[in-house]
Amino acid sequence: MRIRSTHVPEIAVAGCAAWLTAALDAGAADAVSYPVNPYELAARLDVRVRSHMPGDTRIGDLRIDRVRRTIARAGIPIPLVPREFALLLYLAERHGEFVSRRELLEQVWGLRFDPGTNVVAVHISKLRAKIDRGFAAPMIRGVKGLGYRLDTA
Question: Which residues bind DNA (predicted)?
């Protein structure tokens, strides 16, 4: 899946208090003094990255947790393999819009050519079976010639 934006916080490492203050005034998300403990720096980076990541996506009764890479429908956790999660996330980012097979091949599989297989249809079928099982209204709709769309159930 292609990265659309980055969430990279700036953390300054400075040798004195004046430089720390200057770095924070200049817009750094955090600052630590040198010499820095690598474990502390890693922990600070982890906190900053998590705080900059987009939160849950909710579409109807479907919740997608981007950080934990989990989903639930009506509060019921649904296990997905990584490719299914990437496919669902891409459809969710374009909620209500039709996404063509070709676009899914490019954006989810990273393919710039048509492999001549039904890989998209197979994954859509498996995803539908998982997220729609036990629910009256299906969330993924397909229209021949247009593609697939994630709808509010």
Answer: 54-152
